[in-house]
Specification:
This is Phosphohistidine phosphatase. This protein is α/β, with parallel strands linked by helices. The chain is built from 5 helices and 7 strands; from the N terminus they run E-H-E-H-E-H-E-H-E-H-E-E.
Length: 175
C-alpha cells in the first residue's frame, strides 16, 4: 500500500508589489500550519518524503508542519508543482521512488483539489463530499492506493482515508 497526502499551503499574505512566488504566510497561516503539523504527528501520518513547491508560502508551511515531527523528514523542493495543473502534479507523484511508502506533497490550488477528486475512487463519502465542495488553505487529503509503485497511481484508484481542514481540529477555516 502507498499513501499520498496532499497538503495545501496555509493562508498567505498579499503584500503590494510582491511577486506571487515570493508571497509569505499570513498570521492565520502561521497559526494553521503548526496545527496541521501537530495533527499529522499525532495521527502518525509522518511521510517518508515531502515534496514541496518552491513558492515561499509552501516552504514556510512545510517548515512549520515539519517542526511537529520527532524526526527529520526528507524533503525535496519541486518547481514543477508551483501553479501546476493536475497532470504535472501527478507526473511528479508517479516519479517517486520505491523506498517512499508515504508521500506528502505541499502545494497549491486549483491543482490539488482537482488532483484529489481525480484520484479518489472510493473511501469516506462524507470526507469526499467536503473535499469536492472546497479544498481550503492548510487542508489535508490522505489517499491510499493498493499498489506497490507510484508509477501505477491511477485516476479513481485511491481510497480517501480522510480530508481534514484546520477548522475541523480547532483552528480557523481558511479560504
Amino acid at each position: 500500500m502507498l499513501r499520498l497526502m496532499l497538503l495545501r499551503h496555509a493562508k498567505s499574505a498579499w503584500p503590494a508589489g510582491m511577486a506571487d512566488h515570493e508571497r509569505p504566510l499570513a498570521p492565520r497561516g502561521r497559526e494553521a500550519a503548526p496545527l496541521m503539523g501537530r495533527y499529522l504527528a499525532g495521527e502518525h501520518l509522518v511521510p517518508d518524503l515531502a515534496i514541496v513547491s518552491t513558492a515561499r508560502r509552501t516552504q514556510e508551511t512545510w517548515d512549520l508542519v515539519a517542526a511537529a515531527f520527532a524526526e527529520v523528514v526528507a524533503k525535496r523542493d519541486e518547481q514543477r508543482i508551483y501553479e501546476a495543473k493536475t497532470d504535472a502534479i501527478l507526473a511528479v507523484v508517479r516519479e517517486t521512488g520505491p523506498d517512499v511508502r508515504t508521500l506528502l506533497v505541499v502545494g497549491h490550488n486549483p491543482g490539488f483539489a482537482d488532483l484529489a477528486v481525480r484520484l479518489v475512487g472510493h473511501g469516506d463519502r462524507y470526507a469526499f463530499a467536503h473535499l469536492r465542495q472546497k479544498f481550503p488553505t492548510a487542508a489535508l487529503a490522505v489517499i491510499d492506493f493498493a499498489i506497490d509503485s507510484w508509477a501505477d497511481v491511477a485516476e479513481q484508484g485511491g481510497r480517501l482515508d480522510r480530508f481534514i481542514t484546520p477548522k475541523m481540529i480547532g483552528g480557523e477555516d481558511e479560504d
